[in-house]
Write a structure and sequence with these properties.
The structure is a homodimer of 265-residue chains. Chain A has 265 residues and is α/β, with parallel strands linked by helices. The first copy, chain A, is 48% helix and 16% strand. Chain A is built from 10 helices and 8 strands. The first copy, chain A, has an 8-stranded parallel barrel, surrounded by 5 helices. Chain A is globular. The first copy, chain A, starts with a strand and ends in a 5-residue tail after the last helix. At the A-B interface, helix 7, helix 8, helix 9 and helix 10 of A face helix 7, helix 8, helix 9 and helix 10 of B.
């Protein structure tokens, strides 16, 4: 499973301020710490600064690739203009996600050509203008809708990561189960799956515990990528244990190394 | 998922000594603490005392039902004589497991009639005289072999809990994955599944972490019962989070209660 670090997100006041003030050491440190904790991709969201989003995005990407040339990035923006600026400036050696499209024509029309031209992976939310599906079957139907549009332009389905969209179990108790059921159904269509983790535990105490257990379950169900806080020791311990359990860390070499480095709960 | 507390096991020196000395307060306390921590069944193993196993078993069952009349028990013995003594003395209001049979004729011949007569649940290890299967398919074949013999005497398959047998990932990296794959395959035959949890982490550091993540995965895969240490806060926190996530704890009422009582990590 690919780990995408979520911390450079302008909905966090500190990040918003750092972007506004062009505080490159803050942004570089956030990138560095996430990579050190096990992230392979750095999500970059500059959407809610008061500044010019494409300009902010270009700056943030340049800071991050200056800090870690091998880091993959995940360009998290509603604006195809900001996405294009990020793609143009990124010269790093990692891979790139665009985050995200939905089944809506307007976003697909603008973003898909960029994903094709730059050879990126693409996160697609299993929703359209009418909202989010409630059932696993609804998530599958939404995936088919997206896939049809994506295939029409010859984009490789293996580079599509469908996000089945998790909702808080505190208010919608059946949604985690529907999400988990949907993963193998969606993957049977030849695409991959991704999710933003933390929403599942919204409104509950011990959120890290819920997040860690849910991620363990989703990993077992086949989830291919997760957007999360890699500085959450509880969650990253679960990732490391899950890799060992799912035969992605032969003879637990990485797990034991993490233990020795004090990285496990 | 049913939680079976594993602590009253004569392989533990303290328990062995308590059985030998007829220390009923020690055994009662072990039962009480496990029930308080969330176990619904108490496993009782008197197999490696130096005394008379049927006699020891009868004593231990009487102590436990004296302590908690509503507790289910899990009679863990290689001896059908000890199992029969336990069944005769147990007057509690909980349900009963017999732990365990294998595909071997000798054990089935002696234990199945007892399970039928007393209406117990029955744990069946997915193995025979030739040893344990390596693959998920091998575990399925072993289940079919057991099921054929069990059906012949009219025992209800829904009361059979197949244990696919987990082995340490430290020495056999692919075994956890095969175990997890086997759960839905085995359940498709109309039986249930169970496992002894802790073996998976043998030889590794932070065993509770591996156990908790593996149990989360197995729960998601459909595991129906687990034999574990309910005093392991890490593992029981995962059980509570898993119940909330799998819609077995509507609106997370039990989860929030456990948090308030300081029971979550």
């Amino acid at each position: 499973m690919l780990i995408i670090g979520e911390r450079i997100n302008s909905t966090r006041p500190q990040v918003r301020e750092a972007i506004r003030a062009r505080n490159s050491s803050f942004i570089a440190k956030e990138a560095h710490e996430q990579l050190k904790s096990g992230a392979e991709f750095i999500d970059i969201n500059c959407a809610v600064t008061s500044g010019d989003e494409p300009e902010d995005m270009e700056w943030a990407v340049s800071v991050i690739q200056g800090e870690a040339n091998s880091a993959g990035i995940c360009i998290d923006s509603p604006s195809h203009l900001a996405i294009e600026r990020a793609l143009k400036i990124y010269k790093g050696k990692g891979q790139v996600f665009i985050n995200s499209i939905t089944a809506e024509d307007e976003r697909i029309k603008h973003i898909l050509p960029l994903a094709s031209r730059y050879g990126t992976k693409l996160i697609a939310l299993a929703m359209d203008g009418s909202g989010m599906p409630d059932s696993a079957e609804g998530r599958l139907e939404m995936t088919k809708k997206i896939l049809e549009k994506v295939k029409r332009v010859g984009f490789n389905p293996e580079d599509i990561y469908i996000d089945p969209l998790i909702r808080p179990i505190s208010t919608e108790p059946a949604q985690a189960k529907e999400f988990l059921h949907s993963i193998p159904m969606i993957k049977s269509l030849g695409v991959k799956t991704a999710c933003g983790l933390s929403n599942v535990s919204f409104g509950l105490p011990s959120r890290s515990l819920i997040n860690a257990v849910f991620l363990s379950m989703a990993y077992q169900a086949g989830l291919d990528a997760a957007i999360l806080d890699p500085l959450d020791k509880h969650v990253m311990s679960a990732v490391r244990a899950a890799k060992a359990l799912l035969s992605e860390d032969d003879y637990c070499v990485e797990y034991i190394k993490a233990y020795r480095n004090g990285k496990l709960v």
